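Appendix B, record 7
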Amino acid sequence: MRMVGRAMILALALAGGSAAMASEAPRFSRFAYQGQSEEKATPAPGAYRNPILSGYYPDPSVTRVGDDYYLVNSSFAHFPGLPVFHSKDLVHWTQIGNAIDRPGQLDFTGRRTSEAVFAPDISFHAGTFYIVNTCVSCRGNFVITARNPAGPWSDPIWLPFEGIDPSIYWEGDRAYIVNNRAPAEPPRYEGHRAIWMQEYDWRAGKMVGESTQLVNGGVDITKKPVWIEGPHILRKDGYYYLTAAEGGTSVNHSQVVFRSRDLRGPYVPFAGNPILTQRDLDPARSNPITSAGHAELVQTQNGDWWATFLAVRPYAGNYYNIGRETFLLPVTWAQGWPMILPHGKAIPFTAPAPRLPQQRPPALPTSGDFAYTDTFAGPKLAMQWIGVRTPKQPVYRIDRHELVLERGAPMGDLNGVPAFVARRQQHHVATMSTTVRFTPDSDGERAGLAAMQSDKNFLFFGITRLAGKPMVALYTTDKGTERLVASAPLATTGPVTLTIRAKGGTMAFDYQAGAARRTLAADVDARFLSTEAAGGFVGTIVGPYAWRR
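Structure tokens (predicted):
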């Protein structure tokens, strides 16, 4: 819809015509973030801090190419997707791109926030990087490639098998894909899955030969293990090792390992499984790290072994708003088996760093306490910004250091893309703010900050119009039901600074219009933005949002 200028509206009215009022596009002048961890953990010299990627960065896959390490995470229905990171020391990571960064690569239309691209796997062979992945409810499994891990990445090559979590094992010049599929028998119970392998002709981009079931159910099928997934294969000392997640991604999550002398099995489980879990620890312990699993092992150029994996940091019970995060731990080998963490031991917040050349902390930290301000200085948003679903047309533009939001769908509309761009909330204790200029021309129009966990669980805080009057308002939407929490009249049409202060499961909302700063609402229960309440696999994202008629 083309915006109609006020002068044109006046001219039409004087000529006896009519035109509907159209509000000016909202403009945001900055976005500021400051976060700190609830646990007080300061690494000693020569140590690092967990998590290495704070906030919603789940399902990490890591690979080494020479002295360089590359890591990719799940991103579900957020776009751009599949963030790619680089490091020299496995501790300090810099995002270098998004593997899904063009609307033509994947179409997330109709996909809920926790559908679309699940756990990716990154690998390297003969000068080319490979990511193999699943787009849930949008055509299934695929491979994309790039000569440069920063991109551009290719359009998908679609693969003809069902299931999720594929990864590639390279042996010489041959490639094999392993993934979670249905078992070769009628499922015995809910969550009964299997791990399969099939050769992949990487030159032709197609599967070849027979599929082989490697693991049925999990470590011990008589105990009804659930959701065996996220498999990876490595070879060491004459054995093939198959590691996989088991138990689901919540508090029963774990990592298990099997081995075989032959690539296609039979694979024997380790008697000491799981090699990583936190489910056997006291849930009432202080500052817990829980739900650990979905690990991948990598060997350094010095011969040491390390594992990246996901885990979470609840602020109470099983409540966490910031999603599943990326952690790092060393791997020890004994009697031919790997161990990430002995049973009953808690994941440490600090640990001795890998024996690798230490990097300087990146300009935009990913771990510990940090702050940043984005002044929208470039021609487009930084790669850390994401939206919801694949935009068919741009939902924003940058104009003279201001973010301008175009028209979009209402938040929660699965068939549309909202005018919403956001950054991950990376700490439970965080302050997020922006300054917005907007004058709504009809009731219900709004522009400000949104915090979103799912298409049914989100909030809006900002400028709107109620009963013909401009207001600052806070709306929460829980399980699809919207509620006006608080509102106050705005006496100015000038810029308004909006601030959200998060602390665990509560939030406070401040605004400043003119000289005075006021709190619109405090101690608002924000647990509806947690995975425990909203479900799914993502974390809360926060940023500018607008909806106009």
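Remarks on this record: Residues 1-21 have pLDDT under 50 and may be disordered. Residues 123 and 130 are 5 Å apart (CA to CA).
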